[in-house]
Amino acid sequence: MTGDERGTTERVLTLLGLLQQRQVWTGPELAARLGVTPRTVRRDVERLRTLGYPVHACQGVGGGYRLGPGQDLPPLLLDDEEAIATAVALLVGAGGAITGAGDAALRALTKLDRVLPARLRNEVRALTESVESFGGGRTPVEPEALMTLARACRDEVEAGFDYPSAKQPRRRRVEPYRLVASDRRWYLLAYDLDRDGWRSFRVDRMTDVVARTWRFRARPAPDAATYVQEGVASRVYPHQARFLVHASADTVRAQIPASAAVVRGRGSERCEVLSGAADLDPVLMHVLLLGHAFEVLDPPELATRCHVLAKRLRTAGGL
Prior knowledge:
Blueprint: H1 3-21, H2 27-34, H3 38-50, E1 55-58, E2 64-67, H4 80-95, H5 102-115, H6 118-129, H7 143-155, E3 157-163, E4 170-181, E5 186-192, E6 197-202, E7 207-215, H8 224-235, E8 239-245, H9 249-253, E9 262-265, E10 271-277, H10 280-288, E11 294-298, H11 300-316
Antiparallel strand pairs: 1-2, 3-4, 3-7, 4-5, 5-6, 8-10, 8-11, 9-10
Helix pairs in contact: 1-3, 2-3, 4-5, 4-6, 4-7, 5-7
InterPro entries: CBASS_pafABC_assoc_protein, DeoR_HTH, HTH_11, PafC-like, Tscrpt_reg_HTH_DeoR_CS, WH-like_DNA-bd_sf, WH_DNA-bd_sf, WYL_dom
Keywords: DNA-binding, Transcription, Transcription regulation
Protein name: Helix-turn-helix transcriptional regulator
């Protein structure tokens, strides 16, 4: 293979990856991402079609290129049995909470979902329901719910689901933005249309999850992982505390689960720790037991509490 042929092949594969990431791309957008002319994009699209990838061109306002589901799996990708086995493994990995692999499995599954023939989906669902797992990891979620939300995030369509409230489950209507995997659970970051604001939702608490056909224009969004982590570690609790710890952020992150606190670097030798709880005494004790010097930043009354507990400890030690 010559250098020009190799460059064309790499560019066509990059084009395929872009088409799998988003529902519609305009020709100029693809040309800008690939560093080529729109005419070259058109030629590369024809190359993908020749290989069996169903790339559709839409005319008019909002038109562009999109990758449709195939009648048959594209050549040189997967045969039916391999596609079913791969989809089942990815669904179990994502929904069954394999720590560290679930988010990657879900990303791969959304790509496979683009080209998986409709005739295979019932077989995938049936096989998935026959697989169980045991042991630790994330709280299990329904793979179908996870997949529905992943599709809705990818295609920018509204989603709906029942979610627990103080009295009874309420129907929530959202613009889904990102799925976020913590060390324990799956969360959805979405714009809540009824409450007019960004919210994070635990996927394992959702029921009757559906994606609607109503598309939306993506809003400016907060960083998904940061927003969800801060909510899980702090905002959901009635009391929040901030500490300045005299150790590097990497050192402290290795000591505290991401779901328990947010750790922000303050130079190379110090970091800020943000955490929340119903009672801040356990948080204070946890920071103490990290084994590093620290200072209370907020709230002021927690510093007073340090003196009270220190006196109690001295008394217990006979000092």
